């Protein structure tokens, strides 16, 4: 689907799951904080996500059947279809001295391969739907709402390349949904094989929603339905979806990655005298992991403040801040409004999906819209490590040796430095952030005005850059003096 990212598919899955609680008649959801599963609040109601993983999907599709279907539907003229089939059939793979001629599939990385594969999935789903309607009629009452929710359609089928998912739900009626899956999965497997696609049953999964695995399988069902295991959580497009819509597994996964990255870059971080390396490491490796969870966090029932805490704790780890560092300092450094990103991201992805469904030319521009992250950039070279070190010392249980005596210990803090030693650390930090932003704007303006093909312009660029570098050096020098003064207040001169 052109212009639709993985985030759109994730948003659609959660929208489909959440909408069932609103649209289903005679059902009042009651969320319980201390309850692991809330399936008992939905008596007579069953809902599940079926995730299908295909083995070597792109390299396995039936090319001949695909191009025959193009000709039958007049999507391509016969000469065009025959030429493309001949072109793909005569591709040769050479590995050292041996050559291989492919009989199936489209090459991964080919410019036409994603489009051809999407057509293959579309044709397969069209063939699948009539048989699904027959199964639904046999196991469930044929009502408009039942046929809409139990039969695959555009609202409950989610396809991104070879990642396929279904959200099917309906009244329980003596485990009718489970029985439906027992017939639906073999039919899906047969249609997939007709198009050359083989289901990887071990990597696929059936995820009951708001019901435990034990509750779903207690009525004469095993832990596997037609070879597909019943699971309590499943990782789809990089996001772990759990049966109770909890974010805990996803949060734990991200925490492990953050810890690993922090350990990998620890030795490099300590070799610099500013925050540029540490901050860029966070921006490149850690922030995308957190941004990717925006959509899931918007719908999960226990995601309140979890992602925001991860933003703050991850930047503290990378910059070397103590755990007790105040939020204002962290937010001032990253300059990133992560609290409002959820609503902004969901709005953009919903507009993309509606534009795709409507197919109107004036709305097509929305398909390629991006989530704009509004934040104020700083020149990280202007924020020295000594500022972080000074802040850590003043927010830890250290005592001022100059003001303390044997009877009374005076705790060294930001307030003590201001009131007793006339050093306003808070104002100094704020001024540093302000100067870092001004330097960033000046450097950006210089780059835009300068042309490296022009000698005079290049000299102008070097001169201005030198002046800015001098500003950065002055900031670092001033913080070095403050840090040395703080250290002298903690230890006796004889101990230094």
Mean pLDDT across every amino acid position:
79
Query: What is the overall shape?
Result: elongated
What can be said about the biggest beta sheet?
A: 5 strands, antiparallel
The count of strands amounts to: 11
Strand-residue proportion: 5-15%
- What is the CA–CA distance across the termini? 65 Å
Percent in helix = 40-55%
Series of H and E elements:
HEHHEEHHEEHEEHEEEEHHHHHHHHHHH
Low-confidence stretches: 23-43
Count of DSSP helices? 18
Class by alpha and beta content:
alpha+beta
Radius of gyration: 30 Å
Short synopsis of the structure:
52% of the residues lie in helices and 10% in strands. The chain is α+β, with helices and mostly antiparallel strands and 496 residues long. Residues 23-43 have low confidence and may be disordered.
């Amino acid at each position: 689907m052109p212009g639709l990212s993985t985030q759109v598919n994730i948003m659609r899955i959660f929208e489909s799951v959440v909408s069932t609680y609103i649209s289903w008649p005679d059902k009042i959801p009651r969320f319980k904080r201390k309850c692991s599963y809330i399936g008992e609040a939905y008596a007579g109601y069953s809902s599940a996500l079926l995730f299908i993983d295909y083995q070597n999907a792109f390299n396995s599709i039936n090319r001949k059947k695909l191009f025959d279907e193009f000709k039958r539907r007049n999507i391509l003229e016969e000469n065009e279809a025959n030429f493309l089939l001949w072109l793909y059939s005569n591709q040769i793979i050479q590995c050292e001295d041996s050559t291989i001629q492919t009989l199936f599939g489209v090459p991964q990385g080919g410019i036409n391969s994603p489009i051809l594969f999407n057509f293959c999935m579309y044709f397969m789903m069209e063939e699948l739907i009539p048989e699904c309607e027959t199964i639904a009629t046999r196991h469930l009452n044929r009502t408009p709402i039942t046929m809409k929710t139990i039969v695959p359609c555009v609202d409950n089928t989610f396809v991104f390349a070879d990642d396929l998912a279904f959200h099917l739900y309906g009244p329980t009626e003596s485990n009718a949904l489970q029985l439906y899956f027992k017939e639906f999965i073999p039919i899906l497997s047969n249609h997939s094989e007709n198009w050359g696609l083989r289901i990887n049953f071990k990597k696929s999964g059936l995820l009951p929603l708001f019901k435990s695995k034990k509750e779903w399988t207690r009525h004469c069902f095993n832990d596997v339905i037609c070879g597909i295991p019943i699971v309590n959580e499943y990782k789809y497009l990089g996001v772990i979806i759990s049966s109770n819509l909890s974010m805990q597994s996803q949060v734990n996964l991200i925490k492990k990655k953050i810890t690993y990255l922090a350990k990998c870059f620890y030795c490099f971080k300590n070799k610099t005298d500013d925050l540029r390396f540490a901050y860029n490491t966070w921006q490149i490796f850690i922030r995308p992991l957190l941004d990717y969870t925006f959509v899931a966090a918007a719908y999960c029932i226990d995601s309140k403040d979890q992602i925001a805490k991860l933003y703050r704790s991850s930047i503290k780890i990378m910059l070397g801040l103590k755990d007790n560092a105040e939020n204002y300092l962290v937010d001032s450094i990253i300059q990133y409004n992560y609290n409002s990103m959820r609503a902004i991201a969901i709005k953009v992805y919903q507009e993309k999906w509606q534009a795709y469904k409507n197919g109107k030319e004036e709305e097509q521009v929305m398909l390629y819209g991006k989530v704009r992250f509004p934040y104020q950039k700083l020149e990280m070279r202007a924020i020295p490590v000594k500022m972080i070190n000074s802040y850590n010392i003043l927010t830890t249980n250290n005592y001022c040796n100059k003001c303390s005596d044997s009877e009374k210990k005076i705790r060294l803090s930001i307030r003590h430095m201001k009131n007793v030693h006339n050093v306003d650390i808070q104002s100094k930090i704020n001024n540093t952030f302000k100067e870092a932003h001004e330097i960033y704007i000046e450097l950006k303006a210089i780059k835009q005005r300068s042309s490296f093909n022009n000698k005079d312009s290049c000299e102008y660029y070097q001169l201005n850059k030198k002046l800015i570098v001098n500003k950065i050096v002055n900031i670092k020098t001033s913080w070095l003096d403050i840090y040395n003064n703080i250290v002298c207040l903690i230890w006796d001169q004889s101990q230094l």
